[in-house]
Design goal:
globular, 8-stranded mixed β-sheet
Amino acid sequence: MKDRRNHKLINAMMTALRAVHSAATPESMTPEELERQRKGQDILGRLITPPIGFHWEPFSLHHLPMAWVRPERGHDPKKVILYCHGGGYISGNLGYARVLSSKMSSVTGRDVLSFEYRLAPEHPYPAALDDALAAWDYLMYLGYGAQDVALVGDSAGGNLALCLALHLKETKRMLPGRLVLFSPWTDMTASGHSYQTQQEADPMLTIHYIHAARAAYAPNQDWSLPKFSPLFAPLQGLPPTLIQVGGKELLYSDSLRLYQKLLDHGVPCVMECWPELWHVFQMFPLKQSSDAMEKLAQFLLF
């Protein structure tokens, strides 16, 4: 009976997501379309009520909006999570980030720091990466060791988390202790098979959206460069990585190919797939989302 109810809930959510995103996913970057997309992300964050039992502490760091989520119980002050929110690099804010931040804080007992990086097309590459580096440096300034930080990102935030880790490696700085990626966008060239096979199944993303978002973030660039598509970067030396992905999403190949390449480069990596679910399903009030958060907590026991 519970499985049947959960299946009905999944179907209802997929129908609602298709309706919301068909009205709020731009295929162009006109100011009107972009504003509609950003409002859609904000509404999504407001609709999905985060769990109780945490403190929300927004602040600014040199004009960079940031926020701490701190658990009320089971607090581990020595470990911290740095979270990069998704939104195709063209949308997303602290309100949107609050959902996953609070879930991660609740299940791990750790403080989570999120930040509202500058968005394209107003602020194309490397603005978001510069802001991510500022957030990382802030944690180092507070006295956290790099190995005490779990770097987490979803979708474009997964791209950003990977690019930040690669930047730290390239500049010979200490790397985070763990890397966690929810449905990461790793290939801006959209060359994976799922970009064709999952076009009808994905209730959230379209290939037109991918094309529009990458053009806004990195206009007139070679998207195969590792700074845009970390799938094509030398990945050896990255920290142990957890990848979670839905089976019904356009970016499935981005996760699978990253997983295979990380293993090929000697990086300890686990990939977990929920075949019936969609892009960044962890945000939603589903049993599978709770299971995914528990698996994240187990992975971060370091």
